[in-house]
Amino acid sequence: MTSTSVLENIEKYIPLVGDVNIKTPLAYKTSRGAVKVVNAAQMAVAEAYINGFEVPDAVLRSLFDTFMPILFKYFPSLLAPYDWVLKETDHLAEGSRDLMKLQYDLPQAMLNTMLGDGKLIYPKYSMALWEKGAANLEQAQMQMIDDVIEKLEIKDGDNILDFGCGWGCVPNYILSKFPNVKFTGINLSHEQCEYMRGKMQDPESYLSSERFTLYEGDLNDAFFDTKFDKILSIGVFCHVGNLTKAFQKLASFLKEDGKVFIHIITVRTPNNISSVYTHKYIFPHGRYWNFDAVPSHNKDLKTIERWYLNGYNYSTTFANWLKNFDDNQATNKQLDYGIEYAKFRRIWRFYLLWFVRNFACCNGEYNGNGQFLLTHA
């Protein structure tokens, strides 16, 4: 028996540590009971803050810096607030309408100022790449997309599908670099699609060319007359509850020699994780898959290469978004969020402050972004 198997055999009897899925019934029940206590404590602090209890940023940062490393290093099972986080759900996506309402149907003016809205780099709600020396957010987002182009081996003339294309930033940038590439974007958010439709009427946008096609709707319902050379998906798989079904669908769109590139938040802990706070206020049914989750699903697509991007990159991205958010309060407070602006601001500041520290903890080695290159199995 190897030392690893001996450790796993011991850990299955011990609550809270290691892989919660291999626990004995008693250890599992004890672990889940402890999770409820942690969830209640997390929400008590968060709800007090968003309801007006004044807590200096320095105190919140200190709180996050104290507890996050302990949880990631020693008690990762406490970071899985719901049983469904630990495994695939029955549906490809969960809570998609709630997600649209809380995230992607927010006032576009607020999102533009927070995420950045340039002539080439449109709002992009995913990690920017800072480890190559980018000087600002726009440059870091360009370098991130350049990195995707290199890893996916995009070449001129490729026909590419972007699953969950956001506001069209990635297609617009890639179309600007390759005059014969064609793009199809799938997006469930009506508001994001309206933004792209506006760009499709703008002669200065590369989305206005006949090389870009927009499909508004669910991946489950999508059908295309042609198969694609490349498929990419940036960030969307945090909202996908069933990798098996998603990979089966994407594989049906892919040419025999085609490639798929997936970029997601991922964790190098034994379990997938989530948060009661983000589930309620930010990302309904969002989860952060374990770094081994994608490679372990190889029925229709198989992983041929993967990369872990240190959490420093996303922490720095969130820090820039937080600064942009704070710097544009005069504009933001004039917009309609469906709730009192002061409360909305505290909800989002708590989230942004938390994620700056969350991705920075443990030197970024536990919580970062995973990238996966896949082909037909």
Describe this protein's structure.
- The protein has 377 residues and is α/β, with parallel strands linked by helices.
- It folds into two domains: 3-85; 88-376, Vaccinia Virus protein VP39 (Rossmann fold), CATH 3.40.50.
- 44% of the residues lie in helices and 15% in strands.
- Helix 3 (57-74) packs across helix 14 (341-360) and helix 12 runs antiparallel to helix 14.
- It starts with a helix and ends with a strand.
- The mean pLDDT is 93.
Amount of helix: 40-55%
How many domains? The number is 2
SSE series:
HHHHHHEHEHEEHEHEHEHHHE
- CATH topology of the largest domain: the name is Rossmann fold
Q: Which runs of at least 5 residues are low in confidence (pLDDT < 50)? A: none
Instruction: Indicate the CATH architecture of the largest domain.
Output: 3-Layer(aba) Sandwich
The mean pLDDT is 93
Largest sheet: 8 strands, mixed
Q: Which percent band covers the strand fraction?
A: 15-25%
CATH classification class of the largest domain? Alpha Beta
Rg from alpha-carbon coordinates: 21 Å
Q: What is the name of the CATH superfamily of the largest domain?
A: Vaccinia Virus protein VP39
Please state the overall shape, judged from the principal axes of the Cα atoms. Answer: globular
Total beta strand runs? 8
Separation, N- and C-terminal Cα atoms:
32 Å
Helix/strand structural class? alpha/beta
Number of helices: 14
So what's the oligomer here? Answer: single chain
